[in-house]
Amino acid sequence: MSSLLATTGPVLVWGTGLIGTSIALALRGGGVTVYLRDISPTSLALAADMGAGVPVDEVEEPTPALVVVAAPPDVAAGCVIEALREYPRAVVTDVASVKKNVEDAVEAAALDSDLSRYVGSHPMAGRERSGAGYAVQDLFYGQPWVIVPTARSAPESVLAVRNLAVDLGAVPLEMTPAAHDEAVAYVSHVPQLISSLLAGRLLAAPGEALALAGQGLRDTTRIASSDPRLWTAIIAGNAGPIARILDDLGDDLQLLVERLRRFDEGNPGAVGIISEVMTAGNRGQSRIPGKHGGAQRRWAEIEVMVPDQPGALAQLFGDFGTAEINIEDLTLEHASGRRFGIATIMVDPANLLQAVDELEARGWRILSSGGVE
């Protein structure tokens, strides 16, 4: 099968976890020859069984054109250095979520002649669960893929990594290692820690409190189920930028605590901090890019009661499709003990009345409509 992609194979994917296996599956779907390598025989065998590629040990004299190191940040640099030495004709990229430490280690250990073939990168995609079993070939569609060349990276090497990102449906952009690490501290690493800290507080919560949990708690603690081993390596590799943001967050939190205590002691003027915090949160949240990376749009909302039974949600989606109304976004709330969930569907405001009419005509119970998000 000939490749349909700009990426020319063979490609060696070194690391068969979630990201590596997803990359391999996407390349295989485009007709690229993929070799697989991993220190874990079990993970390697699972990825191979999923059709992600062939274990490199089974290939006689492998000569990859591109090596993608998909190893955790604490071991990625060592894998990159080894790949540069073992495969002298290959462009090598790592997709670790921390860049400066990896690049510094590679530059300190690799030959100058090898560094022209090395380009760091990082696809901004993932899931709460890790491992090859959770890999999907469309994981990177529409997601940013940061390319982090070194001063010695050859233009053709940068192009090879850019082609990889585009072939996998991602949106490539270039950053320096320091800028990348500060950026991911804001949008990924600190949110992970805050979610985990919040979820950790639930260990002290009484059972009757948890029985009241709604979608807000589920939303804010969703990523707290992430792999502790992987995230320990990620956080440790980006400790400086993370600590600086947490310092500022700690100041905000301390001020809030002090004002709440003053209010509790009878000072009504201290309660203004709550509005300040909420307003700053509104303004910050509005800066998060919307669909397709553009400015956030305000969608009309429809809250629909969805029975907790097989096929109900699929039927709801199908009815939107039959009505030729696009679902722009959605959330699903399903509290414990209920026999139904509440789907909040976001649609273009111009389609709101039609959507409500179509759904009611098909027997759906509309709880509310018309709000915007």
From TrEMBL:
SUPFAM superfamilies: 6-phosphogluconate dehydrogenase C-terminal domain-like, ACT-like, NAD(P)-binding Rossmann-fold domains
Domain Prephenate/arogenate dehydrogenase: 9-288
EC assignment: 1.3.1.12
One Pfam family here: PDH_C
Stored Gene3D superfamilies: 6-phosphogluconate dehydrogenase C-terminal like domain, NAD(P)-binding Rossmann-like Domain, VC0802-like
Assigned keywords, A-Z: Amino-acid biosynthesis, Aromatic amino acid biosynthesis, NAD, Oxidoreductase, Tyrosine biosynthesis
Swiss-Prot/TrEMBL catalytic activity: prephenate + NAD(+) = 3-(4-hydroxyphenyl)pyruvate + CO2 + NADH
Pathway(s) per entry: Amino-acid biosynthesis; L-tyrosine biosynthesis; (4-hydroxyphenyl)pyruvate from prephenate (NAD(+) route): step 1/1
Ranges of residues in domain ACT: 301-373
Biological process (GO), any one: tyrosine biosynthetic process
One example GO MF annotation: prephenate dehydrogenase (NADP+) activity
InterPro entries for the chain: 6-PGluconate_DH-like_C_sf, ACT-like_dom_sf, ACT_dom, NAD(P)-bd_dom_sf, PDH_C, PDH_N, Preph/Arog_dehydrog, Prephen_DH
Family: Belongs to the prephenate/arogenate dehydrogenase family.
PANTHER family listed in its UniProt record: PREPHENATE DEHYDROGENASE (PTHR21363), PREPHENATE DEHYDROGENASE [NADP(+)] (PTHR21363:SF0)
The protein, known as: Prephenate dehydrogenase
